[in-house]
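PROTEIN DESIGN WORKSHEET
SECTION A - STRUCTURE
LENGTH: 188
TOKENS:
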């Protein structure tokens, strides 16, 4: 998504409620990374992927309450103003959002990657034969979860879900655009 100022934006969550009387909002953040939120100077709010945009809101304060980010946004000064934003999709400037750690990535970096089967994976989980007609598996989405995220993988038999944990995800190759997985027997 590009904002009206033509900067590249990335969806990072959704406003889920007002907090208190002074205009703070609770957000569901697609990542549990508090450090990523601390790097941000502004948020951009919208009504959805194809919806309108409310514009930029400088961040005046950030605190955590039981793993939930509570934000104070400039211009949102009372509970009524905060409640008017509930349900808004939260976007951040892609440059501010990019992780600084080596080997780190954003969900948007991985979506669309080819998903390949690890050599030692069970035979009944095998992807389609390597033919010109067979479509490779593709990562459709990563769904955030309370214990771990879930990979949503497009296969020749439809969409399949796989926990995003080391035992099943063996390799992420950013240069080749592929993820190597070893799903459990009977997964397919």
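SECTION B - SEQUENCE
RESIDUE ASSIGNMENT:
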């Amino acid at each position: 998504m590009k904002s009206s100022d033509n900067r590249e934006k990335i969806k990072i969550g959704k406003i889920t409620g007002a907090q208190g009387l002074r205009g703070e909002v609770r957000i569901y953040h697609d990542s549990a990374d508090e450090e990523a939120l601390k790097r941000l100077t502004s948020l951009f709010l919208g009504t959805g992927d194809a919806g309108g945009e409310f514009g930029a809101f400088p961040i005046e304060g950030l605190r955590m309450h039981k793993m939930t980010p509570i934000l104070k946004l400039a211009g949102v000064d009372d509970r009524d103003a905060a409640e008017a934003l509930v349900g808004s999709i939260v976007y951040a400037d892609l440059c501010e959002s990019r992780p600084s750690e080596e080997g780190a990535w954003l969900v948007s970096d991985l979506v669309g990657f080819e998903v390949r089967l690890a050599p030692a994976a069970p035979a009944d989980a095998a992807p389609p034969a390597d033919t010109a007609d067979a479509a490779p598996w593709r990562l459709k989405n990563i769904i955030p979860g309370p214990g771990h995220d879930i990979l949503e993988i497009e296969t020749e038999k439809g969409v399949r879900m796989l926990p995003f944990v080391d035992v099943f995800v063996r390799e992420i190759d950013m240069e080749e655009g592929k993820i190597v997985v070893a799903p459990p027997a009977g997964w397919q």
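SECTION C - NOTES
The chain has four helices and twelve strands.
Residues 128-133 have pLDDT under 50 and may be disordered.
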